[in-house]
Amino acid sequence: MSNEKEIEKQCTDFRVMFDSLRREVGKVIVGHEDIVENVLIALFCGGNVLLEGVPGLGKTLLVRTLGDALSLSFRRIQFTPDLMPADIIGTNMVSENTNTGKREFSFQPGPIFGQIILADEINRATPKTQSAMLEAMQEHSVTSGGTVHKLPEPFLVLATQNPIEQEGTYPLPEAQLDRFFFKLMVNYSGRDQLKTILDRTTAGHNPKAESVVDAEKIVEAQQLVTNVTVADHVQDYAIRLVLATHPQGEFACDMTNRYIRFGGSPRGVQALILASKVRAMLDTRYHVSFSDVVDSYIPAMRHRIMLNFEGQAEGIDNDEVLRSIIEETPKTVEQR
Fold it and tell me: For residue 1, what pLDDT is reported?
């Protein structure tokens, strides 16, 4: 019984921490509640997030505000076509030892050595520079001059990209897209939200988020998330949803076979399960349900499928295919 009470207390503390972060971010960010929630879910899962939307919707402000609400080191990298890998990860420089007077190489860390990294307009950098982020996003380390340098924990990359400007941009490689936990679409604000934005920004108000969570609490919460229970039949449902994105596969639906060229990787189902665990805890449960999996499916998978020529020619949206998969994939099937 004491163990159950301890688990209940841990879940309650987690929800309190999550809600306090959400409130602090809400002081500055108007609307976009689903975007804020999903970014926080990715944070507690140890994942990276790609934010896509037209300019002026508050993507960069959201990341800055999250940095204010967390007692973590914040770094911003503005991606441009002339940005080089060494500008991100750092480089070895010749320096003089003040004690011996000898010259020696020393590593000068780049802006990647933070805990919250804003990769602004990431698709403006060349593929060579984009690839410098791969090791950091997956292994939380960088290699320079044959030496591996660990990055501080927790480590989170929040990248933004503009979908409408194509000149001077480079599509992200599939290997890098797959390293993003979620891809979130930032949409336009509504009438009431725009009124609130004007009231806050044109009337002399300057709300600011206060720091409410430190690194140690985040790492503890990330460990707590991994302890949430997933029943075999719920886990199998998540697996089948990801396998349903593989054309000509055992669980593929009609739209998959017709429009998808490549489906999701194992990282997709990992993200799906971890995000579902956080949603379960936010709903005062210590076990994952089918609804948790469904709610996490599209943001975790929309960037992990590639449409074929027919899908692109007909203007098919990735989310449309994923919604069809959810509708056609049964919750339970007989185990072999």
Answer: 44
